Sequence to fold (582 residues):
Amino acid sequence: MPRVTVETVEHVARLARLSLSPEEKETFARQLDQILAYAESIQSLDTRGVPPMSHAIASGTFREDVPRDARLRETALREAPDAADGLFRVPRVLP
Amino acid sequence: MAAQLHWMGAAQAAAAVRAREVSATELVRAHLDRIAALDGTVGAFLEVMADRALERARRVDGLLSNSDPGPLAGVPVAIKDVLDVEGVPTTCGSRVLEGYVPPFTATAVRRLEAAGAIVLGKTNLDEFAMGSSTENSAYRVTRNPWSPDRVPGGSSGGSAAAVAAGMAPLAIGTDTGGSIRQPAAFCGVVGLKPSYGRVSRWGLVAFASSLDQAGPFGRSVEDVALAAAVLFGPDPRDATSAPVAAPDFEAAMARDAAGLRIGVPWSFLETGVDAAVMASFKDALRTLEDAGARMVDVSLPHLSHAIATYYLIATAEASSNLARFDGVRYGRRADAPDLASMYGETRDRGFGPEVKRRIVLGTFALSSGYYDAYYVRAQQVRTLIRRDFEQAFAGCDVVATPTAPTPPFRIGEKTADPLQMYLADIFTVPASLAGLPAVSLPSAPAGGLPVGLQLQGRLFDEETLLRLGHAFQQRTNHHRARPAGLA
Fold:
């Protein structure tokens, strides 16, 4: 089983766009290590030939692909922390 | 009657409103008064929509003279704050959504309102429905109406507590791994997690999309059946809603339990169940046997892996679903000089510890090098768990277990140890993984604290669950008990 270290948590937090404090990183490393040690039990099962189950029911009811005017732009932008000219505005992309 | 309007069940209240014995306005007012008197202590609600509720109640009363407002005419209902109601804030119990006012109403809520129900307010929950005690709410503590130093369960703790305390005869919760059933058990009410796909999720904020399902709380099976009949059914706006019509629950409940076979996975129950919970469970089985049901021993060998499987799959899906809370489109944004640090800071300040822990765990399970060993393997074990149920249901109609391994625990008791908190879901996650319907009913209490009996059924067979549940409640009074001091 891989040990979860502070470095692992830092790497994963970066992937998840999550800034964590040093204390959070240490706590999470310890707790995730414990949780994954518990979850290790599933590694002992023989799953050869078992298909992965991604949904409880074979879903996928399809509708006609017809364009319609949802008139959502203004409504959607109303909730934005910052918007301008009918668009979401964000801080500069390059640091 | 007027003095006890707040203990009127949903079916009884709707009948009284339709017969014009009581007005929707009186009913709603009685519940708003009850909330005003008790909710400072219980903490079930995040938002009470008094003006909107009274206005809608007057509208229902106005309809009565020339039309039928519907099967839930005037019935007050509380909504877990993960379902949108247009013009009313949705917080999901999180700071990251502070200030967000949705521009639409969830299909589940629309269906209730179209049937005449009156939304009283939005209820407290664990942040983004992640938790088993409602202690992960960023906003307030919800107390168990039966014992104020104990948790109401979670994540739909506010909805369960509201129904238990007589602040609403009906409430809606959501259940990803037990979040309707476990709080129903802890608060001594009935909670139904429908089959996956039964209730539209349009307007429901997603936690784990292959598992999430909304469903009703009530104080009797009859009330829950009434709400389920309104909630169930396909929705063109939700591609995962199943094209299956709601069953006729009234006809199902008119039949008794005679001839039903109840499977009990005894070997799975051997360890880790509190003695008083086990005594309550055995007592419930005896009642069902007296009602004519037959007990069979079933084997579900992979259930011991259900918690591990669930916490890998649910967190993986959550890490993906929660990517949208990035300070760009809604909610709060942290000030930062560039985009990447804005994302990081917004999410660090907006999310609480449990949500961050799950995002980190889920991202890990999906990350390069671990994806096959954790996420894919968990999905394979999920198939094995579903097959266990399929085999069991070849020889029985319902699988019974306790809903939770212990009675409600104390506030603060498990917050320091996430794994211990996760293990509290041991009996509820299997049906979630398999997509099956399950209901929790009050069984004999343990030392004055509520205990739940869980009945799990075949896919889309809520009918048998409610039929058996109703037969149980015809022979027991556990669901008629009310928390002391909250008369």
